[in-house]
Amino acid sequence: MTQRKPEWLKINLVSGPELATFKELKQTMRSQTLHTVCEEAKCPNIHECWANRTATFMILGDICTRACRFCAVKTGLPTELDLAEPERVAEAAEQMGLNYVVVTSVARDDLADGGAQIFAETIRAIRRRLPLASVEVLIPDFLGNWDSLKTVMDARPDVLNHNIETVRRMSDRVRARAKYDRTLALLKKAKELQPDIPTKSSLMIGVGETVEEIIETMDDLRSVDVNIMTIGQYLQPTKKHLKVEHYYHPDEFARLKEEGMKRGFSHVEAGPLVRSSYHAHEQADAAKEGIAQAQ
What we know:
This protein has about 300 residues and is an alpha/beta fold. It has 11 helices and 8 strands. Helix 4 runs parallel beside helix 5 and helix 6 crosses helix 8. Keywords: 4Fe-4S, Cytoplasm, Iron, Iron-sulfur, Metal-binding, S-adenosyl-L-methionine, Transferase.
């Protein structure tokens, strides 16, 4: 039986000047033939974020080599690699006047480096055009290729994000090819390569996990010194995807945030509509301050 969405999951659309900004950003994306995870993953915050001139660029095309059971991004075998994409992303970010740029990608298991070089070139291209902007990258696991991870870390993003997505027990059912322990190993390795760069991971809940398992996941992330955690409600994008097992109340999210902060995260963003890049700038500022205080 499909559960009815509760009232607190109502999405507010924008109007007036905010709607004009939303349309402007959409036109910029289309003029540069770029993709955004905001659109491809059907993010519920797209109107709010775009109205505030925040968008998450999705590089390496729009076809993912994995078919995770929670994700709305198209899956299949990509046919090309666009070497000019990094410069177009940077140009779009400059046109939009961004001071915080988030870059993610589809999984490209067909590439030897998983697309790491394109990630690094995108970071550097943005920095050339927007030297004062911060750049956060949300990367795939590169199938555990630490040379690929080093390629990205050597470009020195301001935040390195890799999502754990779900609790250990649910991982193989929810994610395709990704492994819970590989995610932890990647986040640990990132900190070893560049200790001063904040790391971040995201958990979506409502797919059948228990609160105790959520707490265990927090502890696992803190064991590899992850600085930022985001927790949001899973929403079923289509009928072929995983069903929602439970809708968490905002009060439950507030308690989870408290639990996370007790465990030493610099910042925990938790709420029904929270996604990995939601309020990313504020998350990064809190993490950098926490790292500076710890040193």
